[in-house]
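Customer ticket, subject: "Can you confirm the structure for Dedicator of cytokinesis 5?"

Message body: Hello, I'm evaluating your service for our small team and ran a test protein. I'd like someone to confirm that this is what the system normally returns, since I don't have a reference to compare against.
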Amino acid sequence: RGVGPMFSGHVSKKEHEKSIYNYDSRGEQELSLQVGDTVHILETFEGDKRGYSSYIHLKEAKVEGTGQQEIVIPSDVPLVLELGATLREWAQIWHKLYVKNKTTLFRGVQQMAYSLIEYRSQIVSGTLPKDDLVELRKKVTAKIDYGNRILGLDLVVRDDAGNTLDPDCTSTVSLFRAFETASRSIDDRIQEEKTRLQNLEMRRQSLFSTVHTYSLLMNLKNFVCNIGEDAELLMSLYDPDQSEFISENFLVRWDSMGMPKEIEKLNNLPALFTDLSSSDLIRPRLFLVCQIIRVGSMELKEGKKHTGGLRRPFGVAVMDITDIAHGKADDEEKQHFIPFQQQLIMSPLLPSRVIGENEPLTAVFNKVINTREVNHKGQGLFVTLKLLPGDLSQVRKDYPHFVDRTTAIVRKMGFPEIILPGYVRNDIYVTLLQGEFDRGKKTTPKNVEVIMSVLDDDGNLMEKAIFPGAGYDGITEYKSVIYYQVKQPSWNETVKVTIPIEDVGRCHLRVMFRHRSSQDSRDKSEKPFGMAFVRLMKGDGTTLRDGRHDLIVYKVDMKKSEDVKTYLTLPGTRAELEEKEKQTGKTLNNSVIPLTKDSFQIGTLTCSTKLTQNVDLLGLLNWRSNPEELEQNLQRLMEVEGGEIVKFLQDTLDALFSIMMETSDKDTYDNLLFNALVFIITLIGDIKFQHFNPVLETYINKHFSATLAYMKLSKVLNYYVGHAEEPDLTERLYSALKALKYLFRFIVQSRVLYLRYYCHVLPSYSDADKYVDKSSLFSDTTFFAFLNVFDPVELSVLLTKFIESIPDSQLVRQKLGCMCKIVESDLFKQPECRDVLLPLLTDQLSGQLDDHSNKPDHEACVQLLSTVLDNLDRKDVGPTRVHVQLIMERLLRRVNRTVISMSRNSPLIGHYLACMTAILKQMDDMHYAHYISTFKTRQDINDFLMETFIMFKDLMGNIFPADWMTMNLLQISVFLRAINQYSDVLNMYFLDQTHFELELWNSYFQLTVAFLTHKSLQLESFSQEKRNKILNKYGDMRKTIGFKIRDMWYNLGPHKIKFIPAMVGPILKATLVPEPELRKATIPIFFDMMQCEHNFSPSRTFDMFENELITKLDQEVEGGRGDEQYKILLEKTLLEHCRRHRYLSQSGEELALLLSSLLENLLAYRTITHDESPELRMSCTVNVLNFYKEKKREDIYIRYLYKLRDLHLVCENYTEAAYTLLLHAELLEWSDKPCAPHLFPGDSKHVWTQQELKERLFQEIICYLDKGKMWEKAIEMGKQLAKMHENQMFDFMELSQLLKQQAQFYENIMHAMRPQPEYFAVGYYGLGFPTFLRNKVFIYRGKEYEWLEDFSLKLLSQFPNAVRMTSTAPPGDNICNSQGQYIQCFTVKPVLIVPPQFKDKGVPEQILNYYRTNKVDQFQYSRPFRKGAKDPDNEFATMWIERTTYITSYYFPGILKWFEVKSISVEISPLQNAVETMEMANEKLSNLVQQQACDSSISVHPLSMMLNGIVDPAVMGGYTNYEKAFFTDSYLQAHPEDFESIEVLKHLIALQIPLLADGIRIHGEKSTEQLKPLHNRLLTCFQDLRERVEKHYGVITLVSCQCHFGGCYWCHCLPVKLPSFKAVCTLYCCRTIHLGLIPFSPPPPQATPVALPPLMDTPGPPPRSRSFTFPFPMFYHVKPGLRVCF
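Agent reply: Thanks for trying us out. I re-ran your input and got the following:
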């Protein structure tokens, strides 16, 4: 936001615009804009914004504040503003999810954000209808709440309109309930989402437990099948396990061209299968079946002479929709393909093609269901399916885009789970089952067609009464499918018969049977051969019973069969025939119409809300026709099956109350009517029919009209209550009490209706008493209804007396529930009524919540209390101050103690906390003062404050979920106000010397610090938007309580010393809160503590304070508190105060600097703790533990040792982990002294002696050393332990194990493979590195098989922005002082330090190898460079070496894999370089020859390559380069000081010959046929080389001897460690030469020391001694022809 200078001219009205594009400024006078930025236009130049109109969009807004405090609030709908804020917040999280590669959540947030953007555009468009807008608001808020929950954001609660609830305008209890409801709703949504992915069965059960009626939407998109004739598709729901159809048919007619008959419905033929109950959908299997009926000729062939219009079975299509019905699959866009299975039909012309088919279509699709094998050849149906909750009306309301007037409504063949009043249905389903027909004169069975129609008693056809399927109008005559030449056809075709209710009694079904011929000419002559009928209603008025009916087939006599009057006198079914024959005693052979031998069965199912098949229920419904049987019918009503009653619930209730009204002047039927009503109400209360409760509610509220019913019902109820002791009435009274809720509803509603239509006057208490007995008032759900009948105050008195008359220990829950309903009624809103009721309520609650109460009903109590508090916190209830005071006096302490005693896991704890918060919120200052005055003694106040402080600390932010931010902040703000009130009480009653309470003050400080540091108040951790909301609503509550802590501390005066060191930690927590003003106010408390301890301490120190502060500072910083600003402010503040103090200036300054240093290390450690690099974490850990080691804080030091060990174990640095633990072991003694607590490991709860703990540590260290292959160190540790077991503990069993372990370690040293680690020098240059790395060089110990490139890549991965330097030379100041990161990495060679015990002895290579890379602190790196001009003939002459020796501060290995170094550089001349090169070559050759000689299994290829490189140096030229460079006269003249070195170089060249000779000999022994040519070549080259060397440099011969090594004998003694340059020089300085040979036993007799004369005449002082000792005999050729034996 800003004002560009280009906007100049006169000042116009303020405008605010939004940036709709990004814009990068091109000059100082332009603004850079991002999409969404707000631009405040202060001035315009003649209305022109100079080109900005394309980048910004004018928006209406209001501005609050000015300058920096200016807040621009767009004039959008609140929900739109919330959407924008939510999207901005989600966008930040979305970006973080992308960076962290959390793909699943990232995509989920993306989809939700896209949905919100779409919703926002719809709302902003302003084009949505009001209803759609309401629904869209619900979707938006649900989506926001769900997204906030899965992203860990705050839960937002809203009112019914979707607006965010303001805690200032909402009662505490209402806010809590809103949070609880919203949270539960989101939890359900998340659980549904989880179960959808993980456990779909649970989701299905959850879904079906909440909704009772469902609808299945199906849309037929296409039908692909080559029929060639018209077709009918009959689709229905089918249960294969029960072999029953659930729904009627959905009919679609298809033409011969493969298109629907209604071409406008192409690709869109929707049908809604409705009235499905949860029991229908949870069937184990549910299928959508489609029967395809071909309409045309008898068989599929052309020809005009063939009969047309015949309905013939063609095939089926079956789809398993169980998953969709169970809620496991829900994708309305997915098109499902249902494969088509054609029925194989018997052909009259080609009987050979018969495969036993002509099965009924039901049998065909049952086979398909069972086998699941369909040879569809690409033919079938394409449908979409979606399960919708709700009945037809609900679905039409909720999903108008799915269900419209073109959607066919397919009814369930049965009733929905709940039949609401007004639900009218009158359907009779008739199923043509099967028949058996005689052939007659035909040779083959008939092709039977069944023709069904509905007629009345006069023979008139009922027009369009038969519905073959939903989607089409009814037909008058239904013709069945024809099965070709089947004697026992089975149709299983179901049609729906729908006729007016008044016509059912005089209607019947007539069925005609006709043979159909395939030839048209024959077919016209065919007449019906049989007829059957059945009445729809029996003579007693009941409907035809459901089930199978075996109809009598009469022979057709055209005259008589069409005469309805004639055949209706005959029996229609076999059952009627048997009954009639039983009555007459005669068989009906000579009937008016002859009977045939044929048989025919149908099935019927009546779905009617007006027709019943129960004669007893029918008798009651038609009571006026037989009033003399009324008493009998009322008694029989209670024997009727419950399902039949609930089906006709409204009609049954209407009948009962009609009887009641029409017999109001008599009491004959009063008891029977009352009992019948109780029976029905009890029936509805049964779990089987509990879904009908809404039906009863609806009936009472909308359909009940009996104005005099209250008189009869109350009269009978009073009679039952008054005669309860009579045995006959006890059971009836018990049933009546269970039905009391709805009995009172009827009574009250009747009385209200009576007053409405007759009196319009409310009765007095005495009048009401005539109708309602006081004892019958007790009901927990009906009191609110009496408000329309009684005077409010009188009713309040009545209720109070009634409840008080019930014993305290009886009907507790019912009493509390009753009182809760009273409070919820309008009665409690009136102040006068509250004056009467509230004392009763508080007395009852106080008694229940009393400490001595026996098993109080906490749930009912909190429900009542929360309802009371909720109502008192409303704006429309009048004055409440007195009522709040009453609750405070009677219940506050009770509620507090209830909360204290309640488990924190109790589901009621949140409710009680909300009630406590509500009470405290409604209390004003006078309430607090009055409440304290009610305590009788100072000790009572002390007890109250103590329990309150402890309770507040325990409850604050720990009960409500963390995402209930508004609720938590409200609770905290209320607690803050209470704490401030109680602070004054502390100062008033408990500050003077006499009444000072240390424990109480401690509790106060603990509470206030916990308040100050509570996570809900740490604004820095919130987004800016959330921070602003909190500040605007509550301010920074931390400052308020922080300043209060400061004031209360300084108020303590001489009592301060009592809080040191206990209060150091809490005050430290307060000072660490990152709020500058708060820190400045509280840090001086530290100086006050120092001063206080200094003054009261005999030694005039503040050691307690210092130790406690260091301990707590370590804990707090590690826990995430503290920062660089705190370090600076702490040091500055303490230094300022200490330097002004007379006695603390020096010691205080030392402490300030010490704390600053500690903070620096701790902050570095914490910063790097979360780094992915374990190496950086280890470095910081070592820095911190070294600090504590210096300060002798062993407790903290040990804690960091174990942190370091854990880091090493994660990285599998077992050696370093062992050395780390060794530091702990070194703090312990081998004694039986008990361990001090601070010496225990952090995870140990065992009490150890020092010896036990040290032994345990040694065992763990040895284990780690074994894993790290550091067996030498493990043996050393084991020897110490073995010595203790042998000499002090005398545990020989443990000693034997240790010795066995050591033996294994010795064997490992000699035989196990142990790769030597590489060492790397790493320099970190540049200011971009942390301080502990910046411009420093470290030596790193690599892992096994870790080479330079691998190590470098790992290093650079830790610092992805660093640049690897290519040069190994030290960098200049430009790099060291740059802001970047530069890493220099190269390999260094450790300098061997031979242990003293190995000096002058032959040591095996396996033993020496350990010391080459371990117990080292010096490393060398040689960098070649040139001095002078390059010699083109010989580059070795000018090749100098810069050797850098790095010395580390610690030996390797140690507690780290790296240590910082200091370096020393030395320049080495080309001649010295040559000597070292020859030394290394000879050493390498000697080692390789020894390995090949000792182990025959080693491959010979390495030896081949090395020998070939020496004897045939094709490229490098070999030693001849040295001859050219150093062995010339000109070089000796120029460098006379190098004469001795030249001689040494010559000797090294000569020494190489015997080594090569042994190598070639071994090579010849191990060479294969493939290597023979190479070996021959090597021999030839070696002979030439040998001749040249021995000619110029003499002969050196190594004498053979037999040696035993490694369990084998070999016959040549080879040097392992050849003389170095210094060793060779000892020929002239008289030092003993150590060649490091392998020892052998016994030494040959020739190996005796000899004294040698000078080898040559050389200038200079004579040598001091010329005695040389060699451990083996060798011949050393000094001059040609002269041999000297050593």
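A couple of notes from the result: The mean pLDDT is 80. The radius of gyration is 52 Å. Feel free to reply with more questions.
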